[in-house]
Amino acid sequence: MDLKLQKIIPQLITVLVVVLVFGFFTYNAQINMENRGIDFGYGFLSQESSFDVQFSLIEYDGSHSYFRAYLVGLLNTILVSVIGIIFATVLGVIVGVARLSPNYLINQFAAFYVEFFRNIPLLLQIFFWYFAALRALPLPQDADAMLGVFFLTIKGLYVPAFIWENLNVFLYSIIAAIVAIVVIRIHARKVQETQGKQLPVFWISVGLIFILPLLSFLIGGVSLSFEIPKLKQLATTSFIYEGGVSLPPELIALTLSLALYTATFIAECVRAGIQGVGKGQKEAAASIGLNPNQVLKLVVMPQALRIIIPPTTNQYLNLTKNSSLAAAIAYPDLVLVFAGTALMQTGKAIEIVSITMLTYLSLSISISILMNWYNKKIAIKEK
Amino acid sequence: MSKISFLKPNKDNLTTFLYMGSFLFVISVIDVFLNSFFSLNITGFLPSSLSFIIPIILGFIGLHFIRIENSGYKFLDKVNKNINTNNFNAILSLLIIFIIIKSTPPILSWFVIDASFAGDSKDMCSGGGACWTYIKVWFRRFMYGMYPNAEQWRINLSFVALTLLGSVGYFATEKFKKYLTLYYVVIYPFIAFLFIFFFISGGPIFFDFSYGIIAAVISIIIGFFIPSKFKFYYFIFVPITLYIALKYFIFYEELIELGKLDGLNWVETGAWGGLSLTFIISFFCLIFCFPIGMAFALGRRSDFPLIRYISIGFIEFWRGVPLITVLFMSAVMFPMFLPADFFIDKLVRCIIAISLFEAAYVAEVIRGGLQALPRGQYEAAKSLGMGYWRMHIFVILPQALKLVIPGIANTFLALVKDTPLIFVVGLLEIVGMLNLAKTNPKWLGFAMEGYVFAAIIFWIICYAMSKYSYNLEQKYKTER
To answer: Are B455 and A349 within 8 A, CB to CB?
Structure first.
């Protein structure tokens, strides 16, 4: 009895404190909102937003609802995060491997990169790229074409647009190729386990992924053409590019700085992961007659990935959350569009901030669930 | 004489290969060097694309020639082992060498040679290089924000005093070493708080500061006579109680009158800014987030399910949202949750928000340390009859904290790097001040200099911190 009470009382006190604090906050919020004549509710989401957004992936203008504005912001956030994650991973892996290079110059270069970009605040880097570096780019009329089709100007990067005919056939062919590869891999594994023979899975896969889409061009009636951006004069000194896809400088500055910054952390994860695989493992693998490629693929990577993935997941989460710094350079992400403009217009502070926070929370949690699942899949299966 | 095979350099014709290889390599480096430093193009007679690529080809062949194993020359072996193991590495090494040579002159000329240092107006900056005059003119703003020039000695004095008080640990004799933790955890933050909020803020309130000093001195003196058993509780509770007692019951009216007469000028927190604000915010958040984080780390490993769930909820919530939304919350949502006549200063709200945010990260780091301890430590402590608190304070936490020094240091680094985000609530530390200065019509077009300046400052701070934490880690590394 005494012991039970000892266990219950601290918990009760804690819960009581938490409840009291929350109760105090809600009570005040109610009174404050009454005084200011604001009513609580999420009904405003369906109202007409009547503000415009510079850059959106879906069709949007002032006549759409606040909910649509929220979606625009969310999609822009996801866009920046996905591009940033891809670039950061590629760069991070390269730098991480370079740090372990026996070449003194290369590993010092990689170390310099990591130490340099890691120790400067991300916001400062974003400002630097946006206000200082990208402002030094040429005006649209002075820009030289890169590879003939890309135009990097002060107003953003212009890239050719793809114009597809029968895009769905092309997509089906890719899906078919992927399904075929999966089937072949399963079959190859079965063959290896039962007969000990190794099929050339890699080359078959490469062949499939190229040949099937190619067939779709030849037989399926798929055709692809490019729309190259063209310079157009608006006034005597004002030019823009028409056609193609334009990426605003905000997006470029943001993805660039996010990728450069996060890559330093990913590089450190990769380095730690590869160093974490014992030397004995490599030697043992070599001594049973695996060639260097097989050692890397079958022995080192599976073990290194186990060490690399959890911290790298954290970095992906950080990148996603850091993408909210977009608000500082007016890239229309979730924070700027929704917690900024929409909040100013409606004055619904509690509703909007809570929705924004919940969105980030669920983004974070979904990435971490996905990564936990993957992590569990490759973890050591202890008996 | 044996036939020379150029495809496979070998030891037989060592000198031939050595001379040829070094000659080609040196030629390629000299070509790039002349090209970048004196803009001479000795291969100008070739087509431009070939002239561009020729140093790489020459250098590559040169490095190929000198790649001779066990040549007997120590230097050559070292070079081969470090930058010239195979063709791929040779090309990468060459590229890096060329990039360094190529990028030195423009960087040097921008930073030093073409830069302007003199004068105090924009007209002095006509050269192609950086305009450090801009930094010179705005230096006080970047350091102190809008803090009045005449009062800036207060910030300097406070920082000097706090640095001196903070370095007491290095000079303490063995006898006082055991009080150091207490000093740093309770007394030092208390004094720092008084300094910053009453000395830097100023106003009639300045006299509160003297109460603080009196309270601290009295409690330290009495502290020597307190039995060591109660010392911990004594130092947690008595100085603050004494301070409040002094402030509200003793001499209150008289000193307020006195304070109004000749206190320091009051400077509102909105005028604080620049690098000093970065330090102030980092300092406070660092002090606050550590105990909060520790409490939640212990809470998350508690045996009481309700406390555990509350801790998990707290930690996961703060870790799941970006700091910028937390600051938004502190700016627009938090005032709604407080009574209407209750006003909390913007800076204080900011510090609370960042502290709670970082506390969640500190909690996870400390939890990692707690989990890494072997169960035997807990069991041994329990078998000695220690209760929960004694076990944690004397056995578990000292070891766990030692384990997580790098993690904690990383969190604090992140904290320092996160401070510029306070621009969201309208406080301008150094990056915010840069953005303000950049839009000044008299000084348009010097964004680059400002950002480079701030980047150098932040880089030095963060790099020093990470090196220091590395040293700490090495110092406290114990074999287990």
So the answer is: no
B139 and B64 in a common domain: no
Q: Note the pTM of the prediction, 2 decimals.
A: 0.84
- CA-to-CA distance for B350 and B335, rounded, in angstroms? 12
The token pair at A372 is 């936990």
Q: Please state, rounded to an integer, the average pLDDT across all residues of chain B.
A: 81
Q: Are A156 and A247 in contact (CB under 8 A)?
A: yes
Percent of chain A residues topping a pLDDT of 90: 21
The structural domain count of chain B equals: 3
Residues of B in contact with A357 (CB under 8 A): 321, 325, 329
Residues B272 and B369 in one domain: yes
The tokens describing A101, both together, are 């290079």
Question: Helices in B301-429 by DSSP H: which ranges?
Answer: 305-320, 323-328, 346-372, 375-383, 388-390, 397-403, 405-418
Does the ipTM surpass 0.90? no
Q: How far apart are CA A40 and CA B98, in angstroms?
A: 64
Question: What domain range is B229 assigned to?
Answer: 174-266
CB contact under 8 A, A105 and B306: no
Instruction: Find where tokens 């010392």 sit.
Output: B231
Same-domain status, B76 and B130: no
Q: Are residues B424 and B315 in the same domain?
A: yes
Measured CA to CA, the distance from residue B262 to residue B269 in angstroms comes to 20
Are A343 and B451 in contact (CB < 8 Å)? no
Same domain, B185 and B213: yes
8 Å CB contact of B322 and A365: no
**Which region among A76-85, A228-237, B2-11, B407-416 has the lowest average model confidence (pLDDT)?**
B2-11
- Contact yes or no for A114/A267 (Cβ under 8 A): yes
Question: Which of A121-125, B172-176, B326-330 is predicted least confidently?
Answer: B172-176
Structure tokens at A197: 């023979």
Residue B440 within a domain: yes
Contact A335 B320 (CB under 8 A): no
Phi and psi at A198, nearest 5°, equal -105, 125
The SS3 assignment for B384 reads coil
Residue B7: inside a domain: no
Residue B232: pLDDT band with limits 50, 70, 90: low
Distance from CA of residue B158 to its chain's centroid?
A: 20
Query: Rounded CA gap, A351 and A337, in Å?
Result: 14
> Does B346 share its domain with B452?
yes
Task: Give the count of alpha carbons within 13 A of A113, CB side only.
Answer: 25
Give the pairing type, strands A150-153 and A145-146: antiparallel
B407 with B278, same domain? Answer: yes
pLDDT at A120 over 90: yes
Residue numbers of A between 324 and 343 with CB closer than 8 Å to B: 324-325, 327-328, 335, 339, 343
- State how far the alpha carbon of B22 is from the alpha carbons of B74, B85, B97, in Å: 15, 16, 15
* DSSP letter (8 states) at residue B196: I
User: Can you say whether the dihedral through the CA atoms of A38, A42, A48, A49 is positive or negative?
Assistant: positive
Cα–Cα distances in angstroms (integers) from residue B273 to residues A290, B132, B463, in the given order: 62, 21, 23
- For residue B203 the two structure tokens come to 């106003």
Query: Is B199 part of any domain?
Result: yes
> What is the maximum alpha-carbon separation in chain B?
107
Same-domain status, B126 and B239? no
Say yes or no for a CB contact (<8 Å) between B451 and A127: yes
| A345 compared with A242, residue with greater pLDDT | A345
Is B201 at the interface with chain A, CB within 8 A? no
Q: Mutate which of A353, A358, A361, A364 to test chain B, going by most B C-beta atoms within 10 A? A: A353
Calculate the CA dihedral of residues B411, B414, B420, B426 and round it to 10 degrees.
Answer: -40
- Nearest in space to B18 (alpha carbons), one of B57, B75, B82: B75
Interface test with B, best of A3, A77, A128 (most B CBs within 10 A): A128
- Examine residue B337 and state whether it is found in any structural domain, yes or no: yes
